[in-house]
Specification:
Elements: H1 3-10, H2 13-17, H3 26-37, H4 58-83
């Protein structure tokens, strides 16, 4: 039997997905048991407890990045001049 045949036989997802009974995962069983005694509080889907605040303009971000690049270039040039090439 070739390596490919063994791989397909070992990891036959269609066969596994066609099973009549599917057991829940250990985490699902644990949460179901916990929530039966103490159900979780309702929460909105993907709630954001504290908003990030107003967004800056993309021009401001671009100016900050270009300013940082310019400062690095100037510092590298100054260091090169001070070292005498």
């Amino acid at each position: 039997m070739s390596q490919q045949d063994e791989w397909e036989r070992e990891f036959d997802h269609r066969w596994a997905n066609s099973a009549a009974h599917k057991e829940p995962s250990a985490r699902a069983r644990m949460l179901a048991a916990r929530w039966k005694e103490n159900p979780p509080d309702p929460a909105p889907f993907r709630c954001d407890p504290d908003p990030a605040g107003p967004r800056r303009s993309s021009w401001v971000s671009t100016a900050v990045v270009l300013g940082c690049v310019a400062v690095v270039i100037v510092l590298l040039g100054y260091a090169q001049i001070r070292s005498g090439y």
